[in-house]
Amino acid sequence: MKISTKGRYGLTVMIELARKYGAGPISLKSIAEDKGLSAHYLEQLAAPLRNAGLVKSVRGAYGGYVLAKVPHEITAGDIIRVLEGPITPVEGIEEEEAAQQALWMQIRDVVKEVLDTTTLEDLIKSDNQEQQKEYMFYI
Questions:
Q1: DSSP alpha helices (H): ranges in 22-97?
Q2: Mind listing the pLDDT tens digit for each residue in 41-56?
Q3: What is the structure's pLDDT at 101?
Q4: pTM value?
């Protein structure tokens, strides 16, 4: 299974919105500038995320996007499925031999488990812990 830029950048947007959860709307332009991404491309990703009920758009001079739910209620799986479609490591597995089908299904189930149990809150905590490790000094 390969996650395209849609899934990767969509996850980036959602993590940034989760980091700033409760601080008001965040413009996709500011996220794009901070991360070195195309604002136009992020706008294209926002529509399906909004339609899926994962983000809300706020119009106006100080508008932007906010999460539609709290960060611990949105999983990586929610985001990836909206932007990438169903999670399948191999297309057409019904044509494979039984042993191969079992392997592909096992891989699919493990990937689903990781994506569906990892929330935006988990990703923010993990990122914060990694940043703290960078500044530790040992004597």
A1: 28-35, 39-51, 76-84
A2: 999 999 999 999 999 9
A3: 86
A4: 0.84
Q: Residue 61, CB half-sphere, CA atoms under 13 Å: how many? A: 0
> Residue 42: how many CB atoms within 10 A of its CB?
21
**Long-range contacts made by residues 120-125, C-beta under 8 angstroms, separation at least 24?**
120/14, 120/15, 120/18, 120/67, 120/71, 120/72, 120/74, 120/75, 120/76, 121/18, 121/70, 121/71, 121/72, 122/72, 123/11, 123/15, 123/18, 123/76, 124/15, 124/18, 124/19, 124/71
User: How many Å separate Cα 65 from the centre of its chain?
Assistant: 15
Coil, strand or helix at 58? strand
